[in-house]
Write a structure and sequence with these properties.
Elements (H helix, E strand, L loop, with lengths): L1 H27 L7 H10 L19 H24 L9 H10 L2 H10 L12 H29 L2
Helix pairs in contact: 1-3, 1-6, 2-3, 3-4, 4-6
């Protein structure tokens, strides 16, 4: 049981690292990416029962929001890895295949498009942004990269520590 939890955590952290490397590449190419401090700001307002914001960038900053955002980002990556194992079966990490991982990764795009963006003031499917279609497609690609990262991280874990 403990070994399974560690494996899932490693897969989630590895996939999130791969997604972050992708986001660094995009930033270097001039493509805007999410400021994870805004996730921390959003999470930091939850104890005051503030779920929705008109614009998270204009919301009152919270102490440690950048660290809170990064911790939340990685915790979500671990949770999505657990979701993959639940959906693909507990044996998947021992013999990982790309298709279930990429499909789950693509499915996780529902979280930003239907929950996070509306809560942060960007609207459902980024509808309140200047380029909703581009933003949705960018999110879809980013989560596809995360899904492939789930597969790569699981394969690496199996090779090294499995």
């Amino acid at each position: 049981m403990t070994q399974d939890i560690i494996r899932i955590a490693c897969i989630g952290i590895g996939a999130t690292l791969i997604m972050d490397a992708w986001l660094v590449l995009l930033r270097r190419l001039g493509v805007p990416t999410l400021n994870f401090a805004f996730i921390g700001r959003w999470v930091g307002h939850l104890p005051q029962r503030r779920f929705f914001h008109d614009a998270i960038a204009k919301a009152q900053p919270v102490p440690g929001e950048a660290a809170l955002g990064w911790i939340t980002h990685y915790a979500i990556g671990i949770a999505f890895a657990a979701l993959l194992v639940i959906l693909a079966g507990s044996q998947w990490p021992e013999n990982p295949t790309a298709l279930p991982a990429v499909l789950v990764g693509l499915g996780t795009v529902a979280a930003p498009l239907l929950v996070m963006q509306p809560a942060m003031g960007a609207g459902v499917l980024a509808s309140k942004t200047a380029t909703p279609l581009r933003n949705c497609l960018r999110s879809l690609v980013n989560h596809g990269v995360f899904g492939f990262g789930l597969f790569l991280a699981a394969a690496l874990y199996q090779h090294i520590g499995g």
